[in-house]
Amino acid sequence: MVNFAPLAFTTIMGHKKILYLSYDGLTDPLGQSQIIPYLIYLAKEGNTIFIISAEKRERYLTGKETIENRLKQFDIHWHPIKYTKFPPIISTLWDLMRMRKNAKSLHKHISFDAIHCRSYITSLIGLWLKKRFGVKFIFDMRGFWADERVDGGVWKLSKPIYKTVFQYFKKKELDFLKQADSIISLTQAGATEISTHISPMTDPQKIVVIPCCADLSHFNRENVSPELQKKWIEKLNIPNDSFVLCYLGSIGTWYLLPEMVHFFKVLKYNFRRDAVFLFITLEDSSIILHEFSKQSLNPDDLRITSSSRHDLPSLLSLCHASVSFIKPTFSKKASSPTKLAELLGMGIPVFSNANVGDIDLYYETIPYLKINKLTESEYKQSWEGFFQRYPFNPQTFVSLSHLFFSLEVGAKKYVEIYRSL
Checking DSSP bridges between strand 321-324 and strand 243-248, what pairing results, if any? Predict the structure, then answer.
């Protein structure tokens, strides 16, 4: 069994002392792309950072040393607990209890200036610490979490237990919004929803919009290795001069696979007979193959692979466009897909459906990338608008990514929040 005991306590003098709580693990891909880069930036700005995260056993075993060495370079103090999954609900309560115990113990030794809570579960601890010890509380909400669980079918309200849990978290959501010293929303649409409907009494000045950003020095076409790019072409057997449409990420719960395959079908039959659909995913390939067959598409036009974060820019450099269709539910008003930042940073245009996050804002000057209705006629219209301007200057999309999704821009907003406290 892995030893998840906290490190030795150390009292640090200097700038703001921050306790960061995450129910996502630092050894998870999300932790490495969406948590650690921000914390390193904040530590470089003179803040003393302590982290409690919930780590999945296998990922912790393989990634522990790498993460520890990376954090130690910046004097970031990591206190992981072991994540438990079963039984549902009870396991989460158990993790929460251990996380709160560690947070309380650390605060007694360190006396934190603020507790930065990623999403709703850890915010239960943040609100408790604020009420018990007067610690400043940052509610980094990451979207409308309780509504996401219902919209995604994870919590079925027909079952009394899930209905009770949903109602509990909706009530706590109001407490978080009212009590937080700062609120972070991933989208302007989400911030507007809070101010106008969910909690109109919440001071809008407390809400800061910071979308999911990307390290654009990594997702940079100029840094792509021609040798590695060639290896990908050979491995995937992509013919010369093919038009490559790609999809990046998972395909479950939120992402509309049938609609995205139909979108490719419109491209293939009406615009580019040489088109290839590349899926970069860890999902079961049989699901994608089944959808291709269902829509009478040739599997020879399909490529499915996965990639490490290190190699991903080289793989993405093969792509001419990407697609990301998400269920336009209420909770997705607060959604900010990381893939959007990464793809645009590589100069790749991303077709996205309307009424998801801030797509309307991002695509104000490039409306042909926004699909208003998921219909064949809309797909044709978007592809027509696309090819009227093709080939593109990739810098158009790189500039858009730097405007909205630069890691540095997002991190600077976090620095401002810390200073304001």
Answer: parallel
pTM of the model: 0.92
Q: Which two tokens stand for residue 117?
A: 């809570």
Q: Taking Cα atoms as reference points, which of 76, 85, 86, 87 lies closest to residue 52?
A: 76
- Pairing between β-strand 321-324 and β-strand 302-305 as defined by DSSP bridges: unpaired
CA 394 to chain centre: 23
Cβ neighbours of residue 171 closer than 8 Å, sequence gap 6 or more: none
| CA within 13 Å, CB half, 30 | 15
213-234: burial string, b at 16+ Cβ within 10 Å, e else: bbbbebbebeebeeeebeebbe
Q: How far is CA 127 from CA 84, 134, 261, in A?
A: 23, 9, 44
Positions of E strands within 207-319: 207-209, 243-248, 275-280, 302-305
Question: DSSP readout, 318-384?
Answer: T-SEEEE-B---GGGGG---HHHHHHHHTT--EEEESSSTTHHHHTTT-GGGEESS-SHHHHHHHHH
Minimal CA–CA distance to 312: which of 261, 346, 283?
346
pLDDT for the residue 88:
85
Q: How far apart are CA 114 and CA 107, in angstroms?
A: 10
Contacts of 109 (CB under 8 A, 6+ apart): 9, 11
Residue 59: count of CB within 10 angstroms of its CB? 17
Which tokens belong to 300?
């020879």
Report how far residue 352's alpha carbon sits from residue 136's, in angstroms, rounded to the nearest whole number: 37
- Do residues 390 and 203 lie in contact, with contact meaning Cβ atoms separated by under 8 Å? no
Query: Alpha-carbon torsion 256, 261, 266, 272, what sign?
Result: positive
pLDDT in tens, 40-75: 999 999 999 999 999 999 999 999 999 999 999 999
Q: Mind listing the pLDDT tens digit for each residue in 271-314? A: 999 999 999 998 899 999 999 999 999 999 999 999 988 899 99
Residue type, 146: A
* Cβ atoms < 10 Å from Cβ of 326: 19
Residue 82 CA to residue 70 CA, distance in Å, equals 20
Which of 228, 242, 325 shows the shortest CA–CA distance to 277? Answer: 242
196 Cβ contact list (under 8 Å, min separation 6): none
